[in-house]
């Protein structure tokens, strides 16, 4: 994801990204530095275990659409 894409994107509590070919949950975002804090699952994880990565290092997964 480029910095421009980061700046124009909307993120929510269900944001997942691909990082090093693995799906990771975005538990926090630093908007000023364009950083994502990643965890392996969507669950409470102590902040010292978060993996901070630059936006250029990830691909944001699109939202899934449920069709009835």
Summary?
The chain is mainly beta. Helix content is 9%, strand content 35%. It has one domain (3-60): SH3 type barrels, CATH 2.30.30.
Low-pLDDT regions = none
Give the C-level CATH assignment.
Mainly Beta
Largest sheet: 5 strands, antiparallel
Helix amount, in percent? under 10%
* Structural class estimated from helices and strands: mainly beta
Question: If you consult CATH, what is the topology?
Answer: SH3 type barrels
Identify the quaternary structure here: single chain
Spatial order of the strands forming the largest sheet: 4-3-2-1-5
The average pLDDT is 91
| Radius of gyration from CA coordinates | 12 Å
Whole-Å distance between the termini? 31 Å
Beta strands, count: 5
| Portion in strands | 35-45%
Order of helices and strands: HEEEEE
Number of individual domains: 1
CATH architecture: Roll
Based on Cα principal axes, name the global outline. Answer: globular
Structure, explained:
This protein is mainly β. The protein has one domain: SH3 type barrels. 9% of the residues lie in helices and 35% in strands. The chain is built from 1 helix and 5 strands. The protein has a 5-stranded antiparallel beta sheet, with no helix packed on it. It is globular. It starts with a helix and ends in an 8-residue tail after the last strand. The model has no long low-confidence stretch (mean pLDDT 91).
Fold topology:
Blueprint: H1 3-8, E1 16-19, E2 22-30, E3 35-39, E4 51-54, E5 59-60
Antiparallel strand pairs: 1-2, 1-5, 2-3, 3-4
Question: Which features does this protein show?
Answer:
68 residues, mainly beta, SH3 type barrels, five-stranded antiparallel β-sheet
């Amino acid at each position: 994801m480029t910095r421009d894409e980061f700046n124009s994107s909307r993120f929510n509590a269900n944001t997942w990204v691909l990082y090093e070919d693995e799906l990771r949950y975005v538990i926090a975002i630093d908007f000023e530095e364009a950083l994502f804090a990643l965890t392996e699952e969507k669950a409470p994880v102590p902040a010292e275990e978060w993996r901070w990565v630059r936006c250029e290092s990830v691909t944001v997964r699109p939202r899934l659409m449920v069709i009835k």
